[in-house]
């Protein structure tokens, strides 16, 4: 299913498809957030924001407002 | 060998770069600032095989050569400027075996600058536990470099690294990724326009907003015409470059690295589940904060009492052993009490930096940022503001510098503006001495000491005011918001004792020497002003007092006290204090406190030292500062000068007033204008005055 990154549930994995370049900082790309890479939602902070991700082995947290600009395809639930 | 060998350590944050630096240089290191900016510059000396000496420079951590902060600018400016005296003969890129893929991005960029580069793979001791296997030879071949597998924890691999550094001339300088493939035509034009320049260097100059002040302007003339590509186009190209680099890295690592992912998922997820839990996460954070305050107030009080007594004894010793005269009195009554006022801080500052560096080193701080971001954002701050606000309890200066990794300018500015409200350690001695004078030493509910509760309350007031003013500023400031927020969640690590210890020593030292200079100068000036006076009232003080008080009716020491009080009153400082007394009287202070407050505008901690100096002038007994203050009598109302009303008023004044020149200077440097520091000074101090006034008038 194609959706945006902020709709993932905890523990869900997805493949990054594309993103709005102007809304996503270069630093995030450099940390591995690139089309084709796998992303896992590790944890959501209390109050639902920010989101703790594992992108391609890099662990990082971003805000929901950035995550909603990243389009992903979810991998079938395990 | 006459010319020294320049080595630069470069790496992502959280790769253990500082541990490698500490292992290489030991205690032969210096920490200073880059000229003109407040970025910390760490350098040291390392002995290499065959008697070669290397100058090691620890550059700020960065994820890539695309700078987005002042710290990162330092890295790229140095690497692009061959004329810089620190320009590295060899670059050592530090990577962490578990994040090799991401770490190699920076490595390939540096390699493209044609600097001889060594790759250090740190935390090699973790490989077995995490079931990581690495074909080092093959990796060396593919990356055209030499690799040192090291472990700072186990202290292994460093001899090999030193050997590699010493043989830097044999390193290949071939780039491993050709960046020009991302836009062949564009790069072709660039090459033709600047045939003499290195292509990748040109590309970096074009894409960065860095001020390349030191680069040869003539060489770079006309470069602005190549910025014609629109900003978003340039960013598109940078994205393409990143993808190309990762493609290369993925290809290389596929052949050389294998990780058993099941083995890798262990401690992190279990700890994260607890530490970022919606209830336990906050409970644990609060408990850690409480522990920190306990250490600052309770544990450090023992060494502090010793220091206080030692300085009193030293003053006494000087008075008794050195020949009487102006010089002895300068030392015993000016310099020693002034110095005592700063040395007494050392235990507290050391504890604070101890905790902060353990929290940072262990990886816990990122979890706090993660937990707090949503809450802080409600007040116009970022989760990353937590670090400055917590370190602000040590000192606002490093705290304000720690705001640099906040991506949004508005959130960063607000953090800078409100951080001085947090209770810095310079306020502590003022709080401690006043609390011990005016708050009774009682237990509440049998276990909590009333005095520590009041201290805790003052911390909460400081923190609360910071948060509330952030909320107000968020509504007032009209700055276009463009919030990016990315934070790495590093692996949990047991903090290395060496790193923590070095950090604590370094931070304490720079604080004590920085503040010490100001305090020493002020105490000398104060002593001069207090031991001299204009006119006959000062010179004839002794005779006047003796005449007024019938000789023999009072014991000699009582008489002496009156003489020294009279002298002080007619000294230069006495006149100055009297001049400002009308301003501070409504707050419940006398002119001596007024002088102490005025001199505290240089730095708050001067307050205690100033009172110590003022009260020491003319006093012969060995007494601690506290006893002298307790004996002061309110000249108008009678009763102790430091009572509940004036004490609370003073505490609140110090809680809110902006009394630190160094902080103002840092704010100026970080915001690049005098507007913000001046506003801070006026608004904070005005607010402090009003609050102190209201408190005194209500309590009296």
From TrEMBL, chain A:
Residue ranges annotated for the Ferrous iron transporter FeoA-like domain, each copy included: 3-74
Pfam families xref list: FeoA (PF04023)
Keyword set, alphabetical order: Iron
Keyword Iron carried by entry: yes
S-adenosyl-L-methionine as UniProt keyword: no
Family matches, as InterPro entries: Fe-transptr_FeoA-like (IPR007167), FeoA (IPR052713), FeoA_core_dom (IPR038157), Transcriptional_repressor_C (IPR008988)
Protein's name according to its UniProt entry: Ferrous iron transport protein A
From TrEMBL, chain B:
Boundaries of every FeoB-type G domain copy: 4-171
Localization terms from the record: Cell inner membrane; Cell membrane
SUPFAM superfamilies: P-loop containing nucleoside triphosphate hydrolases
The entry's keywords: Cell membrane, GTP-binding, Ion transport, Iron, Iron transport, Membrane, Nucleotide-binding, Transmembrane, Transmembrane helix, Transport
Gene3D superfamilies xref list: P-loop containing nucleotide triphosphate hydrolases
UniProt membrane topology term: Multi-pass membrane protein
Transmembrane segments: 279-297, 339-359, 413-439, 445-473, 511-530, 636-657, 678-699
Pfam families per record: FeoB_C, FeoB_N, Gate
Domain of life: Bacteria
InterPro entries membership: Fe2_transport_prot-B, Fe2_transport_prot_B_C, FeoB_GTPase, G_FEOB_dom, Gate_dom, GTP-bd, P-loop_NTPase
Main location: membrane
Family statement drawn from the similarity comment of this UniProt entry: Belongs to the TRAFAC class TrmE-Era-EngA-EngB-Septin-like GTPase superfamily. FeoB GTPase (TC 9.A.8) family.
The protein's role, per its UniProt record: Probable transporter of a GTP-driven Fe(2+) uptake system.
Protein name: Ferrous iron transport protein B
